[in-house]
Automatic annotation (TrEMBL):
<dbReference type="InterPro" id="IPR043128">
    <property type="entry name" value="Rev_trsase/Diguanyl_cyclase"/>
</dbReference>
<keyword id="KW-0472">Membrane</keyword>
<keyword id="KW-1133">Transmembrane helix</keyword>
<feature type="transmembrane region" description="Helical">
    <location>
        <begin position="6"/>
        <end position="24"/>
    </location>
</feature>
<feature type="domain" description="GGDEF">
    <location>
        <begin position="249"/>
        <end position="381"/>
    </location>
</feature>
<dbReference type="InterPro" id="IPR000160">
    <property type="entry name" value="GGDEF_dom"/>
</dbReference>
<keyword id="KW-0812">Transmembrane</keyword>
<dbReference type="InterPro" id="IPR029787">
    <property type="entry name" value="Nucleotide_cyclase"/>
</dbReference>
<feature type="transmembrane region" description="Helical">
    <location>
        <begin position="119"/>
        <end position="141"/>
    </location>
</feature>
<feature type="transmembrane region" description="Helical">
    <location>
        <begin position="150"/>
        <end position="171"/>
    </location>
</feature>
<dbReference type="InterPro" id="IPR050469">
    <property type="entry name" value="Diguanylate_Cyclase"/>
</dbReference>
<dbReference type="GO" id="GO:0052621">
    <property type="term" value="F:diguanylate cyclase activity"/>
</dbReference>
<feature type="transmembrane region" description="Helical">
    <location>
        <begin position="183"/>
        <end position="206"/>
    </location>
</feature>
<dbReference type="Pfam" id="PF00990">
    <property type="entry name" value="GGDEF"/>
</dbReference>
<protein>
    <recommendedName>
        <fullName>diguanylate cyclase</fullName>
        <ecNumber>2.7.7.65</ecNumber>
    </recommendedName>
</protein>
<feature type="transmembrane region" description="Helical">
    <location>
        <begin position="65"/>
        <end position="82"/>
    </location>
</feature>
<feature type="transmembrane region" description="Helical">
    <location>
        <begin position="94"/>
        <end position="113"/>
    </location>
</feature>
Amino acid sequence: MDIKTLVLALALGNLSLCAALFFFQYESKKSLSLSTWAVAKQLQAAAWFLLYLRGVLPDMLTGPLANVLLFAGMALDAGALWEAAGRTGWRRLLLPALAGAAFVYLACHFLEVEPGARAAAGFLIVSGFFLSGVAALALAWRGGSMLRRYLVVTMAALSVLVAGRGLLAAVHPEGWSWIGPGVLQGVGFGALYLMMLTNAFGYLLLSREKLQSELARLEVMDALTDVPNRRGFYQALAPWMALARRPGMPTALIILNMDQFKRVNDSYGHTVGDVVLKAMADICKKQLRDSDLMGRLGGAEFAIQLPRTTQQDAAMVAERIRAAIAEQPVRADKAMISVTASMGVTTIRADDSTVTLFKRADGALQQAMLAGANRVMEAPDVTMAEV
């Protein structure tokens, strides 16, 4: 494949990505990262088409303008990766970095710097922007997937290859006896072609991986209160159920239910009810340790797991939570809504199953509600039950 064909392949490849992105999530709002990446591919496609038409269009279009468009596309490519990483500071750096790169290249062009040095400047600028995108991917190296690590290593290697091609063009523009300038140029454009493929498939696969991760998270998390849902809480509780069969500090369980929560929904609407639930969950979290776990079982009922906590200590924690909820009215829809909660407390026993554990805690909760609500009740201690 000759150089001109490679340039055409780069142009058509980026153009096809633009078309695919146009129809991707056509009926839904795209993320800023995806939108930035789409614009990057449009700029790169335009740049490669202009370079392909060198000799047909004026040199000003197929030289300076084409390369500046390519720099802008590579810069936005990196920006999309930084946006996906949650680092928005790239927006402040984009224009200065792009202006500096354009100034250097245009200065080389208008000062009629030798072609080898001018090509070196272009290759180094492109590899620099591409390498900055690699840095964004490398931020999550420690906890990243094998796909992310593969992309970091591969894209970094391609960046180094393109930069090396640029340096060789400046130092030895005519090549060596065993490797001519045509081969060097082919290596450079081949690396750029691999850059496009790796970046395109990598970005799309990482987006899919992120979406799958979010869907997996939502399977075990309650979207409203940002605590585990029933399934997630049961999964987290399972190992502590097994540990209860061994001697040591017990694990406590609190079942919490908002008192008369239906009245809040009936009086203010479900939207305000959601605000109250989220505020109540936030109040509870502030009373818990990092090792404690709160989950939403459904409706206005929550469960709290307290590792290495006796029933007596758990009752004190529950009382502290009860008082905090009662003392902090929730502001919602221009109204201050006072809410209270009732709680049942127990500990995991060696012979417990999930059913018996929650049945015992729920029994204590029902006693608290029947006793007038806004109070904490403990389930009967095992030693007392045996007497």
